[in-house]
Amino acid sequence: METLYFVIPCYNEEEMLPITAKALIKKRDELVEGGRITPESKIMFVDDGSKDKTWELIEKLNEAAPAVFTGVKLSRNRGHQNALLAGMMTAVKHADIIVSMDADLQDDINAVDGFLDKREEGCDIVYGVRSSREKDTAFKRGTAQGYYKLLAKMGVEITYNHADYRLMSRRAVEALAEFTEVNLFLRGLVPMVGFKSDTVEYVRSERQAGESKYPLKKMISFAVEGITSLSIKPIRFITALGFTVFMISLLMLIYFLVIHFMGKTVHGWTTTVVSVWALGGLQLLAIGVIGEYIGKIYLETKHRPTFIIERDLEEEDN
After folding, report:
1. Which of 56, 183, 215, 295 is most buried, by the most CB atoms less than 10 A from its CB?
2. Does domain 4-215+305-317 have CATH number 3.10.580.10?
3. Residue-range domain boundaries for the chain
């Protein structure tokens, strides 16, 4: 048997946390009683700089059952991916395997049984994959599917319909720690680790309490982060587009020279205006994409920590 730690990033989850804790302790106890994990297995909540009573609830859970619940408090809000990484890097000191999932319980916790089955088959990484998106709106379903296809075309290795619900072995997490970039997109980094992996399908549920922490604005930002963190194809696309526009301009130059010497010069106001606006827009787009990459280089060269831990209840209990 192996020791399992659930790692749950939390941001303003005071409404959802009691529900999540109740469901997870029930699942944890079932797995312990079934002889699938050791009694030392725990549930670790990571407070990502919450502004509500999330950390207070985590402390109360730890005080009531320190053998089951533990927690990590970040010094400030660093975002979901950084909080998840902080929890994993803390839990790996005590666990043989780690299951990461969100606090909203939309991921089916019973899929953990399937994770453990795959683990017994020798998998170091097991991805939780949504079996369908029937409950999503047409807009969200269409944009999500389009995004996964876009990532694939950009050369990014990512598991289709997988978020951050996964099992990782200790050696897989330790290998992930070797990736030191500041711009985190774990869904793309984890497949780079390698090792034997597999998937388990599950049906995603609705959030039971609280509000989604991923509105449209954050989802778009996360999507851009994923593409620019793992692929340079957008820059290559700009290079190809620039070369194409340059070749077209040469052809147009030849054309205008020909009609000039033929005495058929046409004064085209519309053509001039459209050309100026089109090329101007293209240049601004190119500068924006390149600037996105330069910004990431700027952040990487500073080598700032991806997270700073203020409290670690696991260390305090020991």
Report:
1. 183
2. no
3. 4-215+305-317, 233-302
